[in-house]
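User: My collaborator sent over this chain with a note saying "see what the structure looks like." That's all I know about it. Can you take a look?
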Amino acid sequence: MKIFRIFTNDRGKQKGIFMYSAFRGVEAQSAAMAEKVAERLFGPFAYRGEHGPIKAIQWPPASQADKDWLEKHVGPNTP
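Assistant: Without extra context I'll predict from the sequence alone. Here is the result:
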């Protein structure tokens, strides 16, 4: 099992981009499974409609794609 940090869109949009905050970590085998676990456990925090979906990122982030997503949707200097 790996640790994934769950991010929720509770900061609205800035310049048309959903902005996220870290929620908590969960253990799972993949990011997709972590997102499903988070949906089940923390359903009210999985914003939809005007809000972006929850996002799970392996923690600490290792891939460039995860680092790029964090910089775009959370802000610079993350983690």
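A starting point for your reply to your collaborator: The mean pLDDT is 85.
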